[in-house]
Specification:
The complex is a heterodimer of chains A (207) and B (639). Chain A starts with a helix and ends with a helix. Chain A has one domain: Up-down Bundle (Four Helix Bundle (Hemerythrin (Met), subunit A)), CATH 1.20.120.80. The longest helix of chain A has 31 residues. In chain A, 79% of the residues lie in helices and 0% in strands. Chain A is built from eight helices and no strands. Chain B has 16 helices and six strands. In chain B, 51% of the residues are buried. Helix content of chain B is 60%, strand content 3%. Chain B folds into two domains: 30 residues, no CATH class; 491 residues, Cytochrome C Oxidase, Chain A. In chain B, the strands form three sheets. A two-stranded antiparallel sheet of chain B has the order 1-2. The chains are: A mainly alpha (207), B mainly alpha (639). The interface between A and B is large, with 55 and 57 residues.
C-alpha cells in the first residue's frame, strides 16, 4: 500500500483513463481496443480474402469435412462460445463488486481456452500423423496458417487472463473501476477471437 | 485486517487509513512544488527510466527523431553508392570497397549487390526513416502539446512502439551480414522472386513484422490520444491542421498495415514451410521445376502489398502537409485559406487511398476492366490533394510573408510536391503507364513527392520546432545555406529522371549495356550530372548537421536563449507552455481552448498580430454598433 501512495505521487494522471469522456462516452482503453480490433479485422480479412482468391482460382479444392475432425471442431466451437459467456459473467460480477465470483469466471474462461488449445493440438497431431503438412496443398497451407494464427490469438488471451487472475488482481484493492475495465477490454478482445473461429469453422471444415 | 473502513476518493475506493496517508503525501508534494519548482516533488527517476525506457512522449519523440535521422543518412548513403556506379558504369571506386569483396570485387559494384542496395534504400527510407520521423518523432512530440494533453493516452504502449521500431531496424541492419546479403527483391518484395531469394529476405520479413507491430501500437495510441485527450473547448474544427493530418495518417497505418502483416506471414510460410501461397504450379527455376505443391498466385502478393503501400504513400505525405500548413499559417500571419475544405480533403484522401492500390499493377495483366476502375479512382484522389495544395498557395495571397528558414522549406514544398503530383497523373492512366512503368520516370515522380516534398517538410518542421524542443534557435544563415543548396542539387538529382524515363531507361539496371542503346544519349548526358548533384546534395547537409549538433550541445549545456514563443504562434504547443515544455505533464495548468488554431491579425484583437488559442479575452458589454471590443487580453495563466 505504501508503494501505491508513493507511486501515485509521480505517475502521471492521464485523463479518461478509467471513467468515460462525456462527449465520446468511452474511456481510453475501450476506444483503444476497438481500434485494435479494427486492425485485427483487416488482418484476418486479408487472410480470408487470400483464401477466397486461391480457392476460386484452383481447379479442385479439398472438402474439409471429408478428412478434418468435424465433431471435435464442433465441440471446440461450443467451448469458445461458452468462454465468451463466462468472460461476460466475470465482468458483470466485478461490476457488482464480487471479486470472488469474478475470478472464478475468469478461471472458467481460461479453462475453456486451454481445452480449445488441447483439442487443437490433437487435431494438428492427427494431421501430421496422416502426413498432411502445410506444404502438402494450398488447402492445408491455409488451414495451418489461419488456425495457427488464431491459436496464437487464443494463447495471447490465455496469457492476459492468467495475468489478470493472479498478479493483476492486486489492482482490485487499489482501483476497482480500472480492474473491472481491464476485464471488459480483455473480454472484447476475447469475443473477437471467438468470432474469428466462428468464421474459420464453416470456411475450413464445412464448406 | 478485519475492520478497515473503505471510502470513495475521487474515482476509486481506498481504505480510510491509506487515503489519509496518501493525503499527507500529496500535501508534502504540493508544498515542495510551491517551494522548489515543478519537478522537485518527484522522486528522482533512474537514468534508464528517464532516457532509455522513457514513457514521456517528448523524450520518445526525440528518440524516434534521432534514430530516424540516422537511418535517413544511412539510406541516403546507400543511394550515393548506387548513384556512383550509375554515373560511371564499370568504373572502380575505392569507396565501393566498404561493401566488401563479396559485393564489390575490386571496387566495382556487382549487379546483385546493386539490387541489395536498391531494396534496402527503399525499405530504410520508407519504413525506418521517413514514417518514424513524420509520425513517430513529430507526431509524438507535437500532437499531445497541440491538443493540450499531459501525455499520450498510453505512455507504456508508446515506449513499446519505439522499441519495436528499434528492434525492427536492428534486424534490417543485421541482414547486411547474413550469407547472400540483404533482401534483394526490391522494397516491394515481389513473389516469386522474393521466395526463392537468399536468406536476407527472411530477415527482411521478420524486421517488417516488428515495424508493423510498432506502427500498429503507435496508430492506436495516436487516435485515442487525439479523440480522448483534447483539451476542454478544443473541438474537432479547432484542431490545428497538423493534428488532423496525424489523425488520418494513423487511421491509414491502423487499417492498411495488417494486410501486409498477413502477406508477410504468408510469405514467411512460403519461404520456411514451403507452402505455395504465392508460387504458381510448374515454376521453373534455373532449368528445374520446383518441387512444391503449386497453385498459388504471385499477383496475390502484389495486391496485399499495394493494399498497404498505396495508403503508405499518403502516410509519407500527409504529416508533411500538416507541418507545411502550420509553418505557412505562422509565417504569413494569416489564418489558413479554406481550413474546412482542407480538413474535408484530408479525410477524403484517407478514404480514397484504400481504393487506388491496383494502379501500381496495370502491367500485370489483371484485366482492362479492373484497370479502368483503378484509373478512375486514381484520378479522383488527385482532386483533394490539389485542393490542399491550392489552399496552401492561396494562403500566401496578400500576406506579408516572413522568410524564415522553416518558411523557405515550406514554400519550396509547394512547387516540388506539385511537380511530384502532376507527374503522377500519366502514371495513373493505364495507357500512359504502359510506356512509363518501371522506368526512371517513376523514380523521379515518387522522389519529387517524398524527397523535396516530404523531406523538405520534415526540415521545415525541424527548423520550426527545434526551439520548442531545445530552447535554442537553429542558426538562420546556415539554415538558408542548407535550404538553397539542397533545393538546387535535389532538383539536379531528380529532374533528369523524367527525361531518362521518357527515353525508356529501366529503373532496375545500373548498366543496361546494349539494352540502353536506344537511350544512349539520355543516359550519357545526364547520369554523371545526377551523380555529381547527389554528392553535392550530401555536402549541403553538412551545414545542417553541424548547425544541429552545435545547438543541441549548447542547449544541453544549459544555454537556452530562445524566447518561449519566438515565432509568435497561436497553437497550444507554443502559447500555453514553456520551451522546452515541462518534463512532467507538459502544462502547469491544462489549457482551455477559446477559438480556432490560426487567429492571426484578427479584427477583434489589436494588441498583437496573433491571438493564442487559449487566451481569454475580457468579457465586454455588447455594443449595439458591433464595433471593436475592448482588447484586454488576459492570459489564462502566466507560465
Amino acid at each position: 500500500m505504501e508503494a501505491h501512495a508513493h507511486g501515485a505521487a509521480h505517475e502521471l494522471e492521464i485523463p479518461y483513463n478509467v471513467h468515460p469522456r462525456p462527449d465520446t462516452g468511452l474511456y481510453n482503453a475501450k476506444l483503444g481496443i476497438w481500434l485494435f480490433l479494427a486492425s485485427e479485422v483487416m488482418l484476418f480479412g486479408a487472410l480470408f480474402s487470400s483464401l477466397i482468391l486461391l480457392r476460386t482460382a484452383a481447379p479442385t479444392w479439398p472438402r474439409g469435412w471429408t478428412f478434418l475432425n468435424v465433431p471435435l471442431a464442433t465441440v471446440n466451437t461450443f467451448v469458445l462460445i461458452a468462454s465468451s459467456v463466462t468472460v461476460v459473467l466475470a465482468w458483470a460480477n466485478l461490476r457488482l463488486g464480487n471479486l470472488k465470483w469474478g475470478r472464478l469466471f475468469i478461471a472458467g474462461t481460461l479453462l475453456c481456452a486451454l481445452i480449445f488449445l488441447v483439442n487443437k493440438g490433437f487435431e494438428y497431431h492427427h494431421e501430421f500423423e496422416m502426413h498432411r503438412y502445410p506444404r502438402t496443398s494450398n488447402f492445408m497451407a491455409t488451414y495451418f496458417t489461419m488456425t495457427g494464427l488464431h491459436g496464437l490469438h487464443v494463447l495471447g488471451g490465455v496469457v492476459v487472463f492468467l495475468y489478470f487472475l493472479f498478479p493483476g488482481a492486486k489492482m482490485w484493492k487499489t482501483d476497482r473501476a480500472r480492474y473491472t475495465n481491464r476485464i471488459e477490454v480483455a473480454g472484447l478482445y476475447w469475443h473477437f477471437v471467438d468470432l474469428v473461429w466462428i468464421f474459420l469453422f464453416p470456411t475450413l471444415y464445412l464448406l | 485486517m478485519a475492520q478497515r473502513k473503505q471510502i470513495r476518493v475521487g474515482t476509486q475506493w481506498m481504505y480510510a487509513d491509506e487515503a489519509y496517508r496518501a493525503l499527507k503525501e500529496a500535501e508534502r508534494v504540493m508544498k515542495q512544488e510551491e517551494q522548489g519548482g515543478h519537478e522537485a516533488g518527484h522522486p528522482p527517476q533512474s537514468w534508464i527510466r528517464r532516457y532509455v525506457f522513457s514513457t514521456d512522449h517528448k523524450w520518445i519523440g526525440i528518440q524516434y527523431g534521432f534514430t530516424a535521422l540516422c537511418f535517413l543518412l544511412f539510406g541516403f548513403s546507400l543511394m550515393l553508392l548506387m548513384r556512383l556506379q550509375l554515373g560511371w558504369p564499370g568504373h572502380a571506386f575505392s569507396l565501393m570497397k566498404v561493401l566488401g569483396e563479396g559485393r564489390a570485387p575490386g571496387g566495382v559494384l556487382l549487379p546483385e549487390a546493386y539490387n541489395q542496395l536498391g531494396a534496402m534504400h527503399g525499405t530504410i527510407m520508407v519504413f525506418l526513416a521517413i514514417v518514424p520521423l513524420a509520425v513517430g518523432a513529430f507526431g509524438n512530440y507535437v500532437v499531445p502539446l497541440q491538443i493540450g494533453a499531459p501525455d499520450m493516452a498510453f505512455p507504456k504502449l508508446n515506449m513499446t512502439s519505439y522499441w519495436c521500431y528499434f528492434v525492427g531496424g536492428v534486424i534490417m541492419l543485421a541482414s547486411f551480414a547474413v550469407p547472400g546479403g540483404t533482401a534483394n527483391s526490391g522494397w516491394t518484395s515481389y513473389a516469386p522472386l522474393s521466395i526463392i531469394a537468399t536468406e536476407g529476405q527472411t530477415w527482411w520479413l521478420f524486421g517488417m513484422v516488428f515495424l508493423i507491430t510498432s506502427s500498429l501500437l503507435g496508430s492506436v495510441n495516436f487516435i485515442v490520444t487525439i479523440i480522448q485527450l483534447r483539451a476542454k473547448g478544443l473541438t474537432f474544427m479547432r484542431l490545428p491542421f497538423f493534428v488532423w493530418a496525424q489523425l488520418v495518417t494513423s487511421f491509414l497505418l491502423l487499417l492498411a498495415f495488417p494486410p501486409l502483416e498477413a502477406a508477410a506471414v504468408l510469405q514467411l510460410m512460403d519461404r520456411l514451410a514451403h507452402t505455395s501461397f504465392f508460387m504458381p504450379s510448374g515454376l521453373v527455376v534455373s532449368g528445374q521445376v520446383l518441387a512444391i505443391a503449386g497453385g498459388g498466385n504471385p499477383l496475390l502478393w502484389q495486391h496485399l502489398f499495394w493494399f498497404l503501400a498505396h495508403p503508405e504513400v499518403y502516410v509519407l505525405i500527409l504529416p508533411g502537409m500538416g507541418i507545411v500548413a502550420e509553418v505557412i499559417a505562422n509565417n504569413t500571419r494569416k489564418p489558413l485559406w479554406g481550413y474546412r475544405s482542407m480538413v474535408g480533403s484530408v479525410v477524403f484522401i484517407g478514404f480514397m487511398s484504400f481504393v487506388v492500390w491496383a494502379h501500381h499493377m496495370f502491367l500485370t495483366g489483371m484485366g482492362t476492366l479492373i484497370s479502368a476502375f483503378f484509373q478512375t479512382t486514381t484520378m479522383i484522389i488527385s482532386i483533394p490533394s490539389v485542393i490542399i495544395l491550392s489552399a496552401l498557395f492561396l494562403s500566401l495571397w496578400g500576406a506579408s510573408i516572413r522568410f524564415t528558414t522553416p518558411m523557405l522549406f515550406a514554400l519550396a514544398f509547394l512547387p516540388m510536391f506539385g511537380i511530384g503530383g502532376l507527374t503522377g497523373l500519366p502514371l495513373g492512366l493505364a495507357t500512359a503507364d504502359l510506356h512509363l512503368h518501371d522506368t526512371m520516370y517513376v523514380i523521379g515522380h515518387f522522389h519529387y513527392v517524398v524527397a523535396p516534398g516530404t523531406i523538405f517538410a520534415m526540415f521545415a518542421g525541424i527548423y520550426y520546432w527545434f526551439p520548442k524542443v531545445t530552447g535554442r534557435k537553429l542558426n538562420d544563415f546556415w539554415g538558408k545555406v542548407h535550404f538553397w543548396g539542397s533545393l538546387i542539387f535535389i532538383n539536379g538529382v531528380f529532374f533528369p529522371m523524367f527525361y531518362q524515363g521518357l527515353a525508356g531507361v529501366s529503373r532496375r539496371l545500373y548498366d543496361g549495356g546494349i539494352q540502353y542503346a536506344h537511350a544512349k544519349a539520355a543516359v550519357e548526358a545526364t547520369n554523371p550530372f545526377m551523380s555529381v548533384s547527389a554528392l553535392c546534395l550530401l555536402a549541403m547537409q553538412v551545414p545542417f548537421i553541424l548547425n544541429f549538433f552545435y545547438n543541441v550541445i549548447a542547449a544541453m549545456l544549459g544555454k537556452r536563449t530562445a524566447e518561449p514563443n519566438l515565432w509568435h504562434a497561436t497553437t497550444l504547443e507554443w502559447a500555453a507552455t514553456t520551451s522546452p515544455p515541462l518534463a512532467h505533464g507538459n502544462f502547469a495548468v491544462l489549457p482551455v481552448v477559446q477559438r480556432g488554431p490560426y487567429e492571426y491579425n484578427t479584427p477583434e484583437y489589436t494588441e498583437a498580430d496573433f491571438l493564442p488559442q487559449h487566451v481569454v479575452l475580457a468579457e465586454a458589454p455588447p455594443t449595439p454598433s458591433g464595433g471593436l471590443l475592448p482588447a484586454t487580453a488576459v492570459a489564462q495563466r502566466e507560465m
